Amino acid sequence: MRNLLLLTTLLFGIKIVTAQRTISSEEALATAHRIEDVTNSGDPSALNHFFDVDSLIKNIQRKSDALKDPAFMSGFSGSFSKSFANYGQQMMASIQMGNYRLLREYESEGSRRLLFRMFGSGGLNYHEYRLVRVRDSIKASDVFVYTLDETLSSNLASLVDMMSNSGDHLTEEVATMKAMREQFNKKNYAGVKEQYDKLDEKYKRNKAILMLYISACHQLDLPLYQNAIEHFAASFPDAPSAYLMMIDVYYLRKEYDKGLEAIDKMDKLIGGDKMLDLYRGNFYKLQGKKAESIVCYEKVYRYDPTLAANVQFLVTGYEETGEKARAKTVFTDFKKTKAFHDADFSDLLSKYPDLK
Fold first, then answer.
1. For each successive 10 residues of the chain (356 residues), what is the average pLDDT?
2. Other CB atoms within 10 A of residue 109 CB
3. Which of 36, 255, 305, 309 is deepest in the core (most CB within 10 A)?
4. Which pLDDT score is estimated for 228?
């Protein structure tokens, strides 16, 4: 019996050591490159299975008051696991004409991290994944989303608490947020603004409330949207989302020099992203500086020749400056890649048939 007990203890100890074994940089990079290859080939499966949903749910529970209730937790975890299975499909819709690229791998607060850039029809965003070892696999336990300025677990915990409470027990801040979200889901954007306008000034500086208000303003009125973003940037000057939104505002206002400054600040904040030269190129082009814009697009092309949106800008720039041979060469080479899709370039080929 004593030997059996010793054997059981040793086996249990081995399991603990295995579970706590640190993730090496090489393992993290191998995981990241697999996600890049699979996702950018049009397959959502790698991202669909990247999260360890159990770890994510534990993070949400830790930050949520409602999920401290075992009965509520049981119902939430079952439905959440099913709803989170299409994470990859959501990402695929956002990276059309773009891609999903690893910017860097590093260690922070005792865990390995992967910083990815999402770019395409869904706009520009950055995702910082926190990694965890699950048996023989490397998974993500959470993700910091730059446009949210918080982790996914924090965002979902707030939503769960807000939706689970009855109106009699809600603070004014949470009650208003709940009412605004209900109006937003009904596409009653004027109703969202009405709720926001009634708030005390201290609640108008709440980041989550402001983000929802900005989304509603985007649907209502351009000047209103611009003013809402400026208010957010003034309230949260170091927030990543503020830089991302201000780039959009300066584009809309045709304040191109300020737009370039915002891009530089964003570039510094994330530790460098060569793809941001695409945005610089667009601002230079709008300023009438075609040569400078082409230089930017060329830099991005050397960095990533499979980025469809940049290829389109570069080829157009070459065509507009009479460099048709260079335009033809770039486009011909791009057509050989998996990133080329006829439908994405129908307008370009119609305008410049010499590319065919």
1. 38 43 93 95 92 90 85 78 79 91 93 94 92 93 90 84 57 69 84 84 77 87 86 82 86 91 92 96 96 97 96 96 95 92 91 90
2. 6
3. 309
4. 87
Sorted by sequence, the CB contacts under 8 Å of residue 221 that are 6+ apart come out as none
Q: Calculate the CA dihedral of residues 141, 93, 247, 102 and round it to 10 degrees.
A: 50
- Residue 311's nearest CA partner among 324, 325, 323, 294 is 294
Query: Nearest 5 degrees, angle CA 331-CA 336-CA 342?
Result: 70
User: What CA–CA distance (Å, rounded) separates 317 from 309?
Assistant: 12
**Per-position DSSP letters for 61-103, written without gaps between them:** HHH-SGGGSHHHHHHHHHHHHHHGGGHHHHHHHH-TTSEEEEE
Question: Is residue 105 within 8 Å of 64, Cβ to Cβ?
Answer: no
The residues, any chain, with a CB within 8 Å of residue 128's CB and separated by 6 or more, are 113, 114, 115, 116, 143, 144, 146
Contact between 65 and 232 under an 8 Å Cβ cutoff? The reply is no
Whole-Å CA distances, 83 to 76, 77, 257, 275? 11, 10, 43, 32
Between β-strands 111-120 and 99-108, what pairing exists: parallel, antiparallel or unpaired? Answer: antiparallel
Coil, strand or helix at 259: helix
Task: Indicate the residue type of 238.
Answer: D
pTM: 0.84
Contact 66, 165 (CB under 8 A): yes
Answer whether 244's CB lies under 8 Å from 147's CB.
yes
pLDDT at position 174: 64
The alpha carbon torsion through 262, 263, 265, 267 (nearest 10 deg) reads 170
H-run or E-run covering 227: helix 222-235
